[in-house]
Design goal:
The complex is a heterodimer of chains A (112) and B (112). With 112 residues, chain A is mostly beta strands. Chain A contains no helices and nine strands. In chain A, a hairpin with a 6-residue loop joins strand 3 and strand 4. Helices cover 0% and strands 49% of the residues of chain B. Classes of the chains: A mainly beta (112), B mainly beta (112).
């Protein structure tokens, strides 16, 4: 199973952009990159996912390195409600096993 | 629309008791997953259903853990003879069979 590594914690000031890095050096050609976040006492919430190209949605942007061995989740203007644990996950839909392998994630603290 | 729901939200059990945790997936979602999340850790995969078929149960920690989805919709995770190490949050997720999994709020189990 492909693994990801993320910093344990990061801090950001409110209304500033946040770049959350993820390394996945053993990624395979068919692995998708997913980002989820988890607020206290809630289940993980889908943020964004991609395969090769950069992706944008209303919540965030996902920048994927050209060699796909790393990616960055970008929150354009952090708010206090963005304080959460952010997980970077790889999954391969061609493997027939759709399970997610979570790491310990990055705990984002947003300062007012 | 309605998301994934889980019940009960909290469960306290005495060591040795049996417990049953319920998951109601998003209507029409073919795939259903169970994860276990220990305090301060990322979720860990337990088992995966495609409709009523349990295709992967590699994450179930012991034969005291049993999951079923008899009609391909609601699923129940049963833990027999609970032990203190079973204390965790149990998360259910569903998906259309494609990539994105949608998580419920979880059931927090405390075994005394």
């Amino acid at each position: 199973d492909a693994k990801t590594t993320q910093p344990n914690s990061m801090e950001s000031n409110e209304e500033e952009p946040v770049h959350l890095p993820c390394n996945h050096s053993t990624i395979s050609g068919t692995d998708y990159i997913h980002w989820y976040r988890q607020l206290p006492s809630q289940g993980p919430e889908y943020v964004i996912h991609g395969l090769t190209s950069n992706v944008n949605n209303r919540m965030a942007s996902l920048a994927i390195a050209e060699d796909r061995k790393s990616s960055t989740l970008i929150l354009h203007r952090a708010t206090l409600r963005d304080a959460a644990v952010y997980y970077c996950i790889l999954s391969d839909p061609t493997s027939g096993t759709y399970k997610y392998i979570f790491g310990t994630g990055t705990r984002l603290k947003v300062l007012a | 629309g309605a998301g994934v729901s889980q019940s009960p939200r909290y469960k306290v059990a005495k060591r040795g008791q049996d417990v049953a945790l319920r998951c109601d997936p998003i209507s029409g979602h073919v795939s259903l997953f169970w994860y276990q999340q220990a305090l301060g850790q990322g979720p860990e995969f337990l088992t995966y259903f495609q409709n009523e078929a349990q295709l992967d149960k590699s994450g179930l920690p012991s034969d005291r853990f049993f999951a079923e989805r008899p009609e391909g919709s609601v699923s129940t995770l049963k833990i027999q003879r609970t032990q203190q190490e079973d204390s965790a949050v149990y998360l259910c997720a569903s998906s259309t069979g494609e990539e994105t999994q949608y998580f419920g709020p979880g059931t927090r189990l405390l075994v005394l």
